[in-house]
Hints:
Radius of gyration: 14 Å
Shape: globular
Strand content: 15-25%
Number of strands: 6
Distance between the termini: 15 Å
Number of helices: 4
Oligomer: single chain
Order of helices and strands: HEHEEHEEEH
Strand order of the largest sheet: 2-3-4-1-5-6
Structural class: alpha/beta
Amino acid sequence: RSASAAETHALAAAIAARMPAGTVIAAQGDLGMGKTVFAAGLAAGLGVPDTVTSPTYIFFNEYQGRLPFCHIDAYRLEGLTEEEISLTGIADCFRREKTAFVEWPDFIAAFLPPDTIWLRILPGDAPELRLLTFSYSDQTGGWLDAAFGD
């Protein structure tokens, strides 16, 4: 549960502080649910000094912090073939030495690694309240379990 954008940002920053290279988080949720706020929190937790904004019109931005961080917005890739998507260079974001956060991941599902962490962000019963659900395998989630324990 997150009661504000500031809480969502702080949660993501805490997760990023433990996030290992090769981590991919795929976020599902309607417009305005806080996906980009979460991405900015991840970047802050990775020590990225830049302001993180949605890369809607350029597909993805790559930032340098403790680990390379790719912020992908796949919304405009809906309906493209796998070959067309591969021409965007997105697959490079999923290299094992990088980290990635994907908004609208269903549009590039074929490119996501099998150990992707899925995040679902839903509205709560108050205007700012968000319900965040993470889905991941036991092999992927040990570090994430520890982050939630902090």
